[in-house]
Amino acid sequence: MAGSSSAGAAAMEVEDGFKFGLSELSKSVPGGADENLPPVTPSQGFDMESYISNYAGRTRAYRLKHIALRCPALQEEALRMMLHEVQSGQNVQLYKDVLDLCREKDKLGPIEKLRDQSWIDRVQESNDKTLEKLELDLCQHKLNSIKEKVRMGHNDLGHHHYNVGNLNEALKCYVRTRDYGTTTKHQTDMCLNIIKVGIEMNNYSHVVNYINKAEQASTEKLEGPVVGKLRAASGLAHLDSAKYKQAALKFVNMKIEVTEPNNPPTIKNIHPDDLAFNQVIAPQDIAIYGGLCALATFDRAELSSKVIDDVAFKQFLELVPDMRELIFDFYGSRYSSCLALMDKIKGDVSLDMYLGKHVDSLYESIRSRALIQYFTPYASVKMSLMAEAFSTTVDDLQKELAQLIMKKEIKARIDSHNKIVFASHADQEASTYRSALQMGLQYEKRTAALLLRADLILNDLCIKAQRGMGPPRGDPRDED
After folding, report:
1. Left, alpha or beta for 413 (phi > 0: left; psi -120 to 50: alpha)?
2. Rounded to an integer, what distance in angstroms lies between the CA atom of residue 358 and that of residue 362?
3. What is the pLDDT of residue 21?
4. 95: closest CA among 83, 107, 112, 111?
5. Contact present, 194 and 17 (Cβ < 8 Å)
6. Contacting residues for 236 by C-beta, under 8 A, at least 6 apart
7. Cβ 218 vs Cβ 188: under 8 Å
8. What does the CA dihedral 343, 344, 350, 355 come to, rounded to 10 degrees?
9. What is the SS3 assignment for 286?
10. pLDDT digits (tens, 9 = 90+) for 380-425
11. Contact 383, 397 (CB under 8 A)
């Protein structure tokens, strides 16, 4: 009874946190609110089939939906692939949503010809039978009071609800497994299941909560792939709230510390093939998200130690050669080729359903850091040379530099007539005088205090302790 009560409380907690119907749920899933973003033109080499093959499960359909909403040129192909993808699963509601989207965009012909009512009836009937069987099995396991069977029953029921698109019920089932888990792995699996559902529901506060629970619940070191999934999920949560530096720190940290008895700790890299999180995010995404967020927020020392010289993250960068070259060009101050690569991949990364809405902000930050990094070593720079290095015009460059100066990110002055930027250095002479004056005042204050103390001691004006406050009786110091 106690276990049942606790499970009920857990379910109540879920209901309070996720109280909305199916129509609202369809708006909250990834790729559900992309119509306000501007249209995107992908690069000439973008292969949608190859791109989608990096993922598994329902995220393939969501990513295709994002492409259909953001890229008019690929809309029809994306909708056709999405329709085929959804029909390979069990989610009837998602199938209907795709048909509604096809009708709205007037693609793939008349909706009456597209709609496969026999498939809907067949899959719905199969889903109902499976649900009934799983619920009966769970009731039987509860009557037999076998904790492991009950845990597996809730898990299977959660998987079924997830597969048919009922995320609220899936979440409740996964949470209920908490009271029947007996090992660290059981707790970790529960947390990962809830994290996956939380990401799909766009509820990142819940995702962060269960990432912390997974890390705290473990009495031993977590396995590399599990740590990689938790860091990837944490990076997505930070990315969603535009905390780009925190996101970068999570994405680039793809290694763990391994301890063995009688041996010092060693660092083990998480290999991209071991991540196995492609129902949410692919290894290529780790490289792209981590690389762009790092370029936008890391200083040169951090970029060198955490990205360029980091063997673990290099394995992920090898999967995306353009991102690897972009980072090396930025670090090597080859700004023209760096910015050219950024322009080349901008359309492709904008089609990512997690990164798309952040691309403009990240690109602006990267360009600003490049301008600052270029100008820092010089006392003055001709704007014509700087404009050539950044593949822009002098007038546009002047506007960018003026913005950075107003934000106090560059200490400089612009000679608009001669088109020269002069660095504004602090007045060293005045700074030295101020420092010397401050030290003199401190010395004067300390000397006055020392002289006052000496006069007090000399004139016996010290406050002495009362008898009752002295050392205890029998103390050798009390003999005189």
Report:
1. beta
2. 6
3. 35
4. 83
5. no
6. 199, 204, 207, 247, 280, 281, 289, 354
7. yes
8. -80
9. helix
10. 888 888 888 887 888 888 888 888 888 877 888 887 888 888 877 6
11. yes
**Can you give the length of the chain in residues?**
480
CB-count exposure of residue 432 (10 Å: 0-12, 13-18, 19+): exposed
Eight-state DSSP code of residue 253? -
Amino acid letter, residue 406: M
State pLDDT tens for residues 49-87: 999 999 998 899 999 999 998 988 898 899 999 999 999
pTM exceeding 0.85: no
Q: What are the b/e assignments for 323-359, b being 16+ CB within 10 Å?
A: bbebbebbbeebbeebbebbeebbbbbbbbbbbbbbb
Q: Which residue has the tokens 């792209």?
A: 288
DSSP 49-92: HHHHTT--TTHHHHHHHHHHHH-GGGHHHHHHHHHHHHTTSS-H
More confident residue, 429 or 360: 360
Residue labelled with tokens 């069987």: 133
